[in-house]
Amino acid sequence: MSSITWTPDALGSNSVSLKGRCWRVVEAQSISSTTKITDTIEEQETLEKVIEETKPDVPEECRHLGFLLYTPFRYRPYPFNSRFRRLGSPDGVFYAAEICETAIAEKAFYRLLFYLESPDTPWPSNPSEYTAFATEFAVTNAVDLTREPLVAQRALWTHHTDYTACLALADTARAASLDAIRYQSVRDPEGRANIALLTCRAFIGRDLIDSRTWRLFFDSHGVRAYCEFPRTWLEFERTAFDADARMAPMRWDR
């Protein structure tokens, strides 16, 4: 895959300001997991403290934030390549989406990858529960891959499996002291935007400003996602993510 090399100066000269709300989806299992093996609130709190002590230190610049915001910056070195974070990188990335539905599409795809890699695992009889949460961010020095001149290389930024160009761009963005990358989601069928925050400085507040509970149903037809409030249904048919070649061998009937 060919690419055009961006220097820190060139990337910095094309930086833009970004501000708004972004959404991220997580599995909120820690409290329920510790509740199952303790008998009182006091025991549970003690166990939570013990578990916390085994985790890596939170970076200094992130310690004022709630745990859902600082967690992507806490665990290092990184165990694999993702779109804007290299294997072994100590630098965190907070991956999020501009709207909740895009974040749900991303989560649905990556959960399907689990079933793809585990073809003998049956579809769950009950829905999986997730928390979608929103926070606010504001940066004056971001790179927007959906605008000129960078959108001219859209094929590089939106490749489904080859992150080579995106990783090189992220390295350059950090060298240019940029704080965020806006890019098109390749999992959202409508191609709406994601946000990758490269630093805790990007957050406006200390914690969440909204949260919603979503239930994801997986079966031979695809994925259905349901949010009770505000009442919302999303459906991703079994062909929804076919643009990613990894989905071809999926065993839908199991």
Give the helices and strands, then pairings.
Layout: H1 8-13, E1 16-26, H2 30-36, H3 41-53, H4 67-74, E2 94-97, H5 100-117, E3 128-144, H6 154-157, H7 164-175, E4 180-184, E5 193-197, E6 210-219, E7 222-227, E8 232-237
Parallel strand pairs: 3-4
Antiparallel strand pairs: 1-3, 2-5, 3-6, 4-5, 6-7, 7-8
Summary tags:
globular; single chain
Give the total of beta strands.
Answer: 8
Count of individual domains = 1
Main pleated-sheet profile: 8 strands, mixed
- CA(first)-CA(last) distance: 36 Å
Strand content: 25-35%
Percentage of residues assigned to helices: 25-40%
Our count of helices gives 7
Order of helices and strands: HEHHHEHEHHEEEEE
Tell me, what's the shape? globular
Structural class of the helix and strand makeup? alpha+beta
Poorly predicted parts: none
Structure at a glance:
The protein contains seven helices and eight strands. With 254 residues, the chain is an alpha+beta fold.
